[in-house]
Amino acid sequence: MLDLLPAQRRQLRARAHPLHPVVAIGQHGLTASVLHEIDVALLAHELIKVRVLSDDRAEREALLMRICDELRCAPVQHIGKLLVLWRPNPEKAERAAKKKTATAPARERKATPVSRSDAPKPAPARGRSKPAPRRDRAKPPSARERAEPAPPEPRGDQSRRRRAARR
Question: For residue 23, with 0-12 CB atoms within 10 Å meaning exposed, 13-18 middle and 19 or more buried, which class applies?
Answer without folding.
Answer: buried
